[in-house]
Specification:
The chain is about 5% helix and about 45% strand. The longest helix is centred in the N-terminal third of the chain and has 8 residues. It has an 18-stranded antiparallel beta sheet that branches. It has a six-stranded antiparallel β-barrel with strand order 5-6-9-8-7-10. Strands 19-20 form a two-stranded antiparallel ribbon. It contains two helices and 26 strands.
């Protein structure tokens, strides 16, 4: 008897054109995963009637619900489509800003990049963006190096070199330079929210069996960065209860899963209030679309649609206890910013992902104890930044995500 094995199972997905229009044929993409479980469950109701034989008379089925979990390691391009759907905005590139005259100066531990004319804000550069410089006759050490923007005005960018210990060379003005915001970004917009549905297919090649789940939405993403090790991302999926089981693969010839490198914590950085903290020992982040199945209707065993709530963002980070700076943010209920930048290598131009929350409050300050370095835990909640927007230093959003490899 042949028994299906996980190593032989593939999972492919394809975005639907609309609710109720299951995707099929070519154009899908295989997923890389640690584990994935898609299933259909049904509400059930015991027949709690009393009969003379004094025995149960069974149960009846209610509405069916599909969904599951998709657990993986965070890597470039692999998860940006799902994050864009969760944030309700298709990832988009920021146009490179060229023909600049730039002057670079030290402002330890950061650097300033000053343009001779024009406006970085109208050019779309935001706090938290990972940028690179190129062009002109810039010194080699200033070119193709990941720089995290920690401050932006019309003419001045304040940046921190992401690669630990990295520096910039003071010079300028240098003509014909370019500032590039790497890859693509998505954030929760104020208008024009997308509402994406996906078809997922589990294909068991050792059994030649297919299970197709249409009308699935990305309901939640949990990102976890340990002090050392791989960064993980776990998704919650919510569908309407339908599944088609057959012996034929529905998403034919899917594109291979991305082969990008997995992000490791040792190459990342965390910024609180614009300051890079070298004492952070872990960080976790939950982006929740508060999506559930919609209301049941008489005559149908599946809901007609999902229902979405507000996008909320919560999380926590831990840090070595070396003073009261973070505790003061909690004690005084100060609104601050929180930026987590991840890289797939400790090199100047490594591939990156950045998670930017420009309005955050800490809700705890708890220290542990023991024969060890003392570590504090800081829970946080992000909120919509109504002071952000076009031509301003921050997006008008609760969170933005940048993927340098997103095409």
């Amino acid at each position: 008897m042949t028994v299906a094995q996980g190593i032989n199972k593939t999972i492919a997905y394809k975005k639907q054109t609309a609710l109720g229009s299951a995707a099929s044929g070519s154009g899908g993409t295989y997923l890389r995963r640690v584990t994935a479980a898609l299933n259909v469950t049904k509400d059930s109701y015991e027949n709690n009637e009393i009969v003379s034989h004094q025995q149960g008379t069974g149960m009846t089925h209610g509405i069916a619900k599909s969904g599951g979990t998709l657990n993986g390691l965070l890597s470039g391009t692999s998860w940006m489509p799902f994050l864009g759907s969760l944030l309700r905005k298709d990832p988009a590139a920021t146009s490179a800003i060229s023909s600049l005259s730039l002057t670079i100066a030290a402002s330890a531990p950061n650097y300033t990049i000053t343009r001779g004319s024009g406006d970085f804000l109208t050019g779309g550069v935001k706090i938290g963006d990972v940028i690179q410089l190129s062009g002109g006759s810039l010194a080699a050490g200033n070119v193709a190096k990941n720089l995290v923007v920690v401050g932006v005005t019309a003419t001045v960018l304040t940046v921190n070199v992401l690669n630990y210990g990295g520096t910039l060379t003071a010079e300028g003005p240098i003509a014909s330079c370019t500032v590039t915001v790497m890859g693509k970004k998505s954030w929760v917009p104020t208008t024009g929210h997308t509402n994406d549905y996906y078809t997922f297919e589990e294909y068991f090649s050792d059994l030649t069996r297919s299970r197709v789940y249409p009308d699935v939405q990305i309901a939640q993403a949990d990102i976890s960065m340990p002090a050392t090790g791989n960064v993980t991302i776990n998704h919650t999926l919510v569908g309407l209860g339908a599944v088609t089981k057959s012996g034929t693969q529905s998403l034919t010839s899917p594109t291979a899963a991305p082969s990008t490198e997995v992000f490791g914590s040792v190459a990342g950085a965390v910024y609180v209030g614009g300051t890079r903290y070298g004492t952070i020992t872990s960080m976790s982040l939950q982006i929740n679309g508060n999506t559930t199945q919609g209301e049941a209707t008489v005559g149908s065993n599946v809901a007609s649609d999902t229902q979405r709530g507000r996008v909320t963002v919560t999380g926590s980070f831990t840090a070595l206890f070396d003073g009261e700076t973070l505790a003061t943010v909690f004690d005084q209920e100060t609104t601050t910013s929180l930026i987590m930048v991840l890289a797939d290598a400790r090199t100047d131009a490594a591939n990156t992902m950045a998670f930017v929350m420009s309005r955050v409050k800490l809700s705890s300050d708890d220290n542990d104890d023991g024969e060890k370095q003392i570590v504090g835990t800081y829970n946080f909640t992000a909120s919509y930044n109504g002071s952000g927007g076009a031509a301003l230093a921050n997006h008008a959003t609760i969170i933005s995500v940048q993927d340098s490899q997103a095409a």
